[in-house]
Specification:
Strand content: 15-25%
Number of strands: 17
Order of helices and strands: EHHHEEHEEEHEEHHEHEHEEEEHEEEH
Radius of gyration: 20 Å
Low-confidence stretches: 1-7
Mean pLDDT: 92
Distance between the termini: 27 Å
Helix content: 25-40%
Number of helices: 11
Shape: globular
């Protein structure tokens, strides 16, 4: 247990990891044999003058992420750049095993790759992307802007692959699996966490993507908070210790976020933070300025500590069906922005200064938070640190220059 004020000389830096870059039988069944999301990336086309597409991964033909060899390649590149942990996008749906309250989906990268790699001493944590899984591979006509608001909303039923509104029994089964399968690993990430008595403990980090889905799926705020309390109790009983439960909270969304009993909030990336940006292309520097200015406000706005994020870029156009015009009608159509390596390094430097300020403060109501980078490999959304054929390792070198 730590005192509530301290001085640190290094920071916990993590990259968000999206694991749809290997052949998954469920995705293959909806698409074609040996399909991966690389199919969208390598076939992307420029949608407007000056648009930089396609962006071809340097590791396209290297060992897959769901193999120990493929994971080792990624772990080495990340740790050499000063990245301390992966925050894996993680999924669980009833459709995976309806008789036993669901099962994991798209888990090849963490389970078959990362955990079995010979060099997996790198830290890791999970972010449950607890929302509908919709067919946007590519997104077809009528899908844009139509995420369901509840289980009875039929707007996207024809494109819905897996139902994100899950009940308490499904949440309990999934979170017990998280504790037993992942949090018992010696390299599962622990971060500073405020305790009710004013002390700080290092607790296992777990993030949820959608606060509203928890409340709506379980039926009430009381039921949702009981799910979280049971999660903490299961971790304690399994000798994992305390939990640090975080929510990915878009700007301005309170309600379920402020009412759930959690330890911090964050954002998946700046596209969830900033307001409307220029279409079809916004200057990264403008997005950066707005996003960084908001960092100081989030802790006071939500009443819990804030974990900052830095974005590399944003361009979801590879997920847009090419037969349709590229217009500003909602995700995945919409504004794009892209950093140069120099601009991205500047964002990281701003994040380091912000972390220094937080971590060296004497506040008794704050923590020294980690940093999330969006993203390690969100290729179909334009946000990646992995090397590409155009700029090589430039973004990894930027991370190393600031945090290495």
């Amino acid at each position: 247990i730590l005192a509530a004020s301290h001085v640190v000389n290094s920071h916990q830096v993590g990259a968000i990891y999206f694991g749809d870059w290997h052949v998954d039988p469920h995705m293959e069944a909806y698409n074609t044999e040996n399909w991966t999301e690389y199919n969208l990336v390598v076939n992307a086309e420029p949608r407007f003058e000056g648009h930089i597409q396609p962006n071809i991964p340097s590791w396209l033909n290297s060992a897959a992420e769901n193999t120990p060899t493929g994971a080792q390649l990624r772990i080495d590149a990340a740790t050499n750049a000063g990245i301390d942990f992966f925050l894996f996008d993680w999924y669980w749906y009833n459709e995976m095993n309806s008789s036993h309250y669901g099962g994991p989906f798209l888990d090849g990268a963490p389970e078959d790759g990362f955990l079995k790699a010979s060099n997996n001493t790198m830290g890791f944590a999970l972010m449950w992307a607890n929302q509908d899984w919709v067919d946007l591979h590519p997104a077809k006509a009528g899908w844009h802007g139509s995420y369901r608001t509840g289980p009875d909303d039929t707007r996207t039923r024809q494109l819905l692959m897996y139902d994100g509104f899950m009940n308490s029994s499904t949440y309990n089964a999934a979170l017990a699996y998280v504790v037993d399968k992942y949090m018992t690993q010696s390299n599962y990430l622990k971060v500073e966490t405020l305790q009710s008595d004013g002390t700080i403990r290092n607790c296992s980090l777990f993030s949820f993507y959608q606060a509203a889905y928890i409340v709506i799926g379980t039926g009430s705020l009381q039921a949702a908070n009981k799910v979280l309390a049971d999660f903490r109790a299961h971790a304690a009983a399994a000798n994992v210790g305390c939990l640090h439960i975080s929510l990915m909270a878009p700007t301005g969304l309170k309600g379920p976020v402020t009412d759930l009993k959690v330890d911090s909030i964050s954002q998946y990336g700046w596209m969830k933070t900033v307001g409307k940006t220029a279409f079809p292309y916004a200057q990264y520097s403008d997005v950066q300025k707005e996003a960084v200015a908001l960092w100081q406000n989030f802790t006071s706005e939500y009443g819990v500590p804030y974990i900052p994020s830095v974005s590399v870029a944003w361009d979801a156009s590879p997920r847009c069906i090419k037969q349709e015009a590229f217009v500003d009608i909602g995700y995945p159509w919409g504004s794009t922005w892209r950093s140069t390596p120099t601009e991205f390094q500047a964002s990281l430097s701003m994040a380091r200064d912000y972390l220094d300020q937080r971590c060296n403060s004497q506040s008794k109501t704050d923590i020294c938070p980690p940093l999330f980078i969006n993203a390690w490999n969100e290729w179909s959304e334009g946000a990646y640190l992995e090397p590409d054929e155009r700029e090589g390792n430039a973004r990894l070198e930027a991370v190393k220059a600031v945090f290495g």
